[in-house]
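Deliverable D4.2, example record:
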Amino acid sequence: MDISALVNQLSGVLDDQTYKASDVLAKIGSEEVVLEMIKLLEHPQDDSKVMAARTLGAIENNQSALDALLQAIDNNPAIAGELLVELEGFDLSAKYVPIFKYSLFGNFKVATVAQDLLDHKEFDITPRVIKKATKAWHHYENNVKHDEVFELKKVEVEEMLADLQAFVDSE
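Output generated by the structure prediction step:
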């Protein structure tokens, strides 16, 4: 397989073959493919970044690309939700706090996807993780309008943090 030709199908003008190329690259799943997808996360066209994230999410040994994908999410607010969806294909066990922050500070789509990840992925929860999540919550709490939406979020988040603390205390 010509990896360069397949990567080229994910950059620039996307067509009918783009998804097929992404699937083939994901099946190849080599370190070379992962590195090429990480580079593609910095492509000037948003569609190419989304296709790189899609490919990475489908690669079995993709963990080395997780930080690059999180950085792409942070750097591309217009497509952050589309990129965040692809985190489903990663081991996020050590990334509770960044995902929690997306659920607080993200736009509707980002917050919704992040909350779904928090609800359905497994995370390594430690006292330090709870402390950092609580700090993020206090930052959010001190920097948003305290309206009805905030009050609903407050109940939800404080219950979630209490559940996490109870889990850690029971260990």
